[in-house]
Structures are given as structure tokens and as C-alpha cells.
Amino acid sequence: MPDPFEIVVGTYEQFLLGYKVNNIVNEYKMERTFATHNHTSSVRSVASDKHYLASGGADDSVYLYDMRYRIESGRLMHHNDTVNCVAFTPEASHLFTCSNDGTIAAIKCGNWQMEKHWQKAHKGLGVNTLAIHPTGKIALSTGADGILRTWNLIKGRQAYATNLVPRLKLDAKNVNILKWSPNGEKYLLAVNQRIDVYSVELAGIGSEIKFNAKIVCVEFLRDDLIAVGLENGQIKFYDLEKSVQTLEAIAHDTRVKCMAFKDDLLVTASSSGEIKLWRYGKHKLRMLQNVNCGARITCLSLAMPYKSLYDDATIKAEEEVEVPRKNRFKIGQEVIVEKEENDWEISSISKKKKSKKKRSIEEGQDSNAPDKKKNKSLLKKKKSEDLDTIISDDAPKKRNRLSENENGNVTWNKNKRRKKRSIPVEENNNIPAKKLKSAKKSILESKEIDNQDVLRLKRKKDTNAEESGTILKKKKKKQ
């Protein structure tokens, strides 16, 4: 029992239609699931992979859809002319688009940001079609310049070019059918009534096939088997290895516009609006279901059911499972700051304990001290005693021009001689270390200032003496 899938069809009347195929006791049914009218002109190309669906049209835009929620997820307007082809890479990592404006664009799936834009892919002429290798590393493109170009998608540049004009002549500018085989060892070009099959190993044409009617579409069923849709409504199956036609059937009254293949099921669509589901066998082709959409079909794609690793069922199952409280949240390095009067106490939740080595170095005692509070009080006393020794009245007196007010503020007096500078010590001896450092710096600065003043006075005396000597000499000469 094959999985159900969805047929997505683009029409000339600007509609995008979806039909779901269900198998119930070997009876296939096709039911319409959606119909959108976003494009303002005919739809030219449709592609789908995973839960992504993209359609390009003659309105110069590409519409994006999410098939999981059946919503439109965006619109791309980076082309200035009709979008001829839309194609996903095998893993749906990128979306490639080509247009009549002569450009090819590579867009990242998910965020839909343009990663590469070849402005003149075919010398500024229109790009007809694009085909991506099954590995996603190489791509082929044909254009109105009559050249088949190979693109290196890893480096993002052209690898080489093949001129089709000597072989196809005027038809080289109208190559609209370009397909890779499932294993990536062959690719084919189709134009008018001929198909050229190229071999990657031989780096040239492996075989040539001619038909009695114009070729409209081609689809690979296997590596060596293709189905060809003709303008007269016939479908012909051709074996590339044996170079023999295996089967022929009349599928539609009008031309077979597009085809798609999955497992042993073949989907065909005609310009009259008919969509048919076939089961392919070695010697017969049996029709399973038929639907008429009532519009002229231009393109077709198959949307496979996509189930992500984290679908709705798994998400609900994970939500129902109760997580223990200990593992729900990790305790971060949060810091709580509390202000009481003038003292700041910082306590951290994650880092409450200090290393025993640091404490033993600071306290000057063993790390296994029984009473921590006593050690802290001893440290405070030692600090206060050190402060008293640094700032004490018994220190050697030095002259300074700094004077103190009643409040303990220090001021600069030019006229006064240098006096002893002292800082008031509180009874609790809780002077912070920062104030002590600033006081020491100010004392050192005052010493430097005094030395500079002394040097200035000496210079002035010398200059005055020289001037007085010169004045006396001048007076004696005049006399």
C-alpha cells in the first residue's frame, strides 16, 4: 500500500489546485484539497519538497506555501520577467529560480534569503529551464543564447559551457525540456521531435531518439526507462539501454502537457484540464482514476506527505511527560544586592562559598578555624591598627600649605606656611582603604608642588641678580 500523496497543478487561469490521492482497498480516489488564486498571471512552474511548495508565474513573482498548515508563507519578487522554472535541491536546502530576464537565483529555504544571483547567466538573454543533479552539487541550464551551461553549486560559479547551435541549429534557443536520470549518470535534452541523451562518463551524446510527433514532456521512470508525452495525446515508453520502444498508449485527446511518476503510479495532465492516474506495468498501462479540473493545465508536481521529527504528536507526548523539578531549571549566577544605610551587602545564590585556601591566606590562620566570626573581628582590628599607625600625630612633621577646616575639609592657602596635614580618624576606625590611598596621593602631590615653587623662586632670584648687575654696569659707563 503506497503512501497517499497530493497532486499540485498550475493553470493558465492563474489558479493553483491540489488533489489528494487515497488508496482504499485497491480503489484510488482523487479529492480536491485546496485552490488558490494568488498569481495575477498564468502559472508556469511548480515544485515541491518536504513541506515546501513553490510556484512561479508570468507575473514575475514566486509564491511560497507551507503544506503542513496550508498557508502562504511568502512571496519572492527578485525577477523582472516571467519565471520559467522553479526547482528545489534534493534535501530542500535551497530553491533555484530562472527567468526571462536572464538571471538565475539561489534562495535559502526557511528564511528565504537570496544567497546567489547570477545577473547574466546566459549573456543577459532569457533562461528557459533548469535541472539540478540528484547530489545537489551541479546544475544544468539552457537559454536563448543556445548554450548548455553547467553550474558548480558548491563554488557558486559556472563550470563549463556547451554550444548547442552546431547540432540543433535554430532549435538550440528553444530547449525547454532538461532532465537528470535518478542516479545522475545521464541527462537528456528534448526539442521538437528529437531527444539527445548525454552520458556523464563519456562527456558526450550517448544516444539519439526521434519521434513522429512533437515532444511536450519527458519523465524518467527508472535510470534506463523514460516516458515521453507527445502533442497528439500519446505516451511512449522507451528503454535507453536497449534503445527500444517498450510500450505505447493513447492517454488524452489533446497534448500531454506534463507528467510525474511515483513508485508504479504515473500521473498525466493535458491542456484540456484532465488529470489521470495510471498504474504502469511492463506490458500494459492501466488507468485508475480520472478528474477534470475545468482549466488549462500548464505544470504539475507531486507533494509527498512530510512528517518532521517534531510533529504535533511528539510535541504533545513530550508535554504530557512530567519533568522533575530539580531538572527543570538550572540555577544561574544570580546576584542579590541589598542596601542598608551606607553599607552594601552582596550575596550570590550560586557562589556562596569561598575556597578555604584564600581564607587561610587572608586571615593568617589555619583553614580549619573553628570560629569564623572571631577571625573576621580580628581582621577588622588589625586593619584599624594599621590605619592608626599610618595616620598618627607622632608622624614626622612636614611643612605644607594645606589647612583643614572644622569639618575636616582640606583647603589650599597661598599665604600660609606649610603645616601638618592630618585626616580625622573616627572612633570606630572604619575608614575605607580608598580614602587612605587618595590622602597619600594628595600628600605626595603637595610635595612635588612645593619643590616646583622653590625652583621657581631660585630662578627669579638669579634673573633679578643678573638684571641688577647689568644696570649697575650701564650706570658706571655713563658716568
The backbone outline, from C-alpha atoms, is elongated
**In which range does the helix fraction lie?**
10-25%
Strand content: 35-45%
Mean pLDDT: 79
Please state the structural category: alpha+beta
Q: CA-to-CA gap between the ends?
A: 139 Å
Radius of gyration: 45 Å
Largest sheet: 4 strands, antiparallel
SS field, number of helical segments: 6
Total DSSP E strands: 32
Oligomer: single chain
Instruction: Name the poorly predicted regions.
Output: 321-358, 365-370, 390-400, 418-429
Describe the structure.
19% of the residues lie in helices and 42% in strands. It contains six helices and 32 strands. A four-stranded antiparallel beta sheet has the order 3-2-1-28, with no helix packed on it. It has a four-stranded antiparallel beta sheet with strand order 4-5-6-7, with no helix packed on it. A hairpin with a 3-residue loop joins strand 25 and strand 26. Residues 321-358, 365-370, 390-400 and 418-429 have low confidence and may be disordered.
List keywords for this structure.
479 residues; alpha+beta; 4-stranded antiparallel sheet; elongated
Secondary structure blueprint with pairings:
Elements: E1 5-11, E2 16-24, E3 27-36, E4 43-49, E5 52-57, E6 62-66, E7 71-76, E8 83-88, E9 94-99, E10 104-108, E11 114-118, E12 127-132, E13 138-143, E14 147-152, E15 157-163, H1 165-168, E16 177-180, E17 186-191, E18 194-199, E19 204-210, E20 215-222, E21 225-230, E22 234-239, E23 244-250, E24 256-262, E25 265-270, E26 274-280, E27 285-292, E28 297-303, H2 312-320, H3 325-328, E29 335-340, E30 343-348, H4 356-363, H5 372-390, E31 402-404, E32 410-412, H6 433-478
Antiparallel strand pairs: 1-2, 1-28, 2-3, 4-5, 5-6, 6-7, 8-9, 9-10, 10-11, 12-13, 13-14, 14-15, 16-17, 17-18, 18-19, 20-21, 21-22, 22-23, 24-25, 25-26, 26-27, 29-30, 31-32
